[in-house]
User: Fold this.
Amino acid sequence: MKRRTIIALAASIMGMILCMGLTGCGGEKELYDGLNLDDYLTVGEYKGLEVDAYKIKVSEQEIQDKVEAALKEKQENKKLGKKQELKKGDTANIDYSGKVDGKPFDGGDSEGFDLELGSGSFIEGFEDQLIGHKVGDTVEVKVHFPDDYQGEKVAGKDAVFTVKINSATRPKVPKYTVDFVKENTDFDTKEAYEESLKKEIYKEKEEQAKNEQKTSLWSDVLEATEVKKYPEDVLAAYEEVFDAQIDTMAEQAGMTRSEALKQMYGTDDEAKIKSIIEDSTKTLIKQEMLTEYIAEKEGLTYTDEEKEKTIAEVEGQGYDDETVKQYTGRTMEQYAHIRLLYEKVQDFILDNAKVKK
Assistant:
């Protein structure tokens, strides 16, 4: 019922895999231990490269957007009475049951579901048809499932939902006053608070600008680097991991492998998928070997404290040893290793670059 597609799930899992690299599948040994990377790479220049300078401006609108976000964080949800009509932004607690061609379908019913109207969580048109109704109403909602909907049994078909509105709440956002500033920040005036927001925005933009510089430089280094050959065992291991992720994502999304492939790649031709996986794997291995190469040549290392902090951050994002192994075949320690090395290499390349004036 919800518009959760395999694309979002794929982005999450594949993003995790792509940033993990360099590490061994199933053991503590790194994939490239014992390899003379000079036999595998012809590395181009990575020091003294030119990169564009950045210029940062913070607008008044950006500051006010931060203020609005802070106000929204402190909002209270007011319960609606039976005479009040629902509007966009309200959250309705609903029971619903849907039918296609007069018959119920899997995933088409639920009880006590909290739905924010206007959030786009449900299929297009569903939420809009609840607006204007009241708590206690039973509403007939008619929608059309798109042709590419993840469930083939309902894709391209019309559906009718019977929806009962059990209760509803409306967000009440506080006013932006000096009292709000004093009660919710470390400042006594709006001016001081907004100045702190300006510095915060500047810092965020500066970090983004530097990351863009790093991305540009890394792209230049990759382009100037040639792979002489790929370590066959590493190539096979990664291809196996990538292929297994397709089945994992399909299962978690309640889809067949064929359905998942069509949504991710636009085709379920296994020969084409194999070629795509091979290309992705080679790109990843090239980046990994280049990262290891530069780190070794320049003596780039990290501390135990940095590793522990990185692991804590990953765990804070909801990943543990089991999920990391499930998605990549690698340990948490190995992930921390590649993430830190990659950051060190990126910083080194930027620190040694020439910034265009």
In short: The first helix runs from residue 6 to 18. The first strand starts at residue 41 and ends at 42. The mean pLDDT is 89.
